[in-house]
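Escalated from tier 1: PBG holo job.
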Amino acid sequence: MQSFQRHRRLRQNGSIRRMMREHHVSSADFIYPLFVVEGEGIKKEIPSMPQVYHYSLDQLEAELDEVVALGIPSIILFGVPEEKDACGSEAYAEDGIVQKAIRLAKERFPDLYVMADTCLCQYTDHGHCGVVENGAIHNDHSLDVLVKTAVSQATAGADMIAPSNMMDGFVAAIRAGLDEAGFENVPILSYAVKYASSFYGPFRDAVDSTPQFGDRRTYQMDPANSREALREAASDVAEGADVLMVKPGLAYMDIIRQLHDRFDVPITAYNVSGEYSMVKAAAQQGWINERNVVLELLTGMKRAGAELILTYHAKDAARWLKEAKE
Ligand code: PBG
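Tier 2 regenerated the structure:
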């Protein structure tokens, strides 16, 4: 008989499988997204995202208690403002919803690492991520507003700035703005590689940011491209990005891997709203085992090369990981 390899030797029982395991998901890898709204007494489920809620600030504390108790080190805040206008001025208002949420979170939970998403689409009446002039998104004028937004978030106490707007030069502009305002120690997590994806649908319901005209394809990337992702990432690293993000995660695991191999900065995978909702819907139907599927997906992102995972599953996953240890 021709000789062959006995791979099953290393799979014989739980102990050896644990010893041979190459990648691990841990609650320390998670960034948990939260949506904050004005008002009082609001904890309102987002219809297309089961178990994800809008929180008014008075409801936020209990939620943060849970996040901290589960050992999740970090949150990212998305604001849903009451008023929108053409240039997204609520994005940088001192008493904007995100600025207030950051202050509250840092005051009550000084050790919780608070990130701020720096973008304009939730705040503009046209729903685009930048300033619109003559029917087009004006790159450099958008940068001015984004810098103001990032500085206002850092001033409120944000530990990290996470710009997702996909304007060219946003990392350089925001870095310069933060440095000038004395925030040279606040890192930038750049959504360097953000695709024009249909997986953002439920998020856009959540924050009411569907573009009122056109789409985001003049600034977000074409899903068919991978070499373009490397160029985007290279320029963001050169401009001073401390951490890179790939978004979405599941359909772009190859991009996570390529960035991880090419660049020496930490990589974050954004497991986006549509990915979350697909799993939830199938689980509600009883078609998949939610726990196992979620842990498998998150492990896949780690294996692909992500150090951090931004995921709406974070609380559930942290709970399951904890149970597995007990
Ligand atoms: C833009 C932004 C988007 C998401 C996070 N930040 C959406 C978009 O480009 O429309 C999507 C996240 C998700 O789907 O979970 N500010």
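The CA atoms of residues 175 and 240 lie 7 Å apart.
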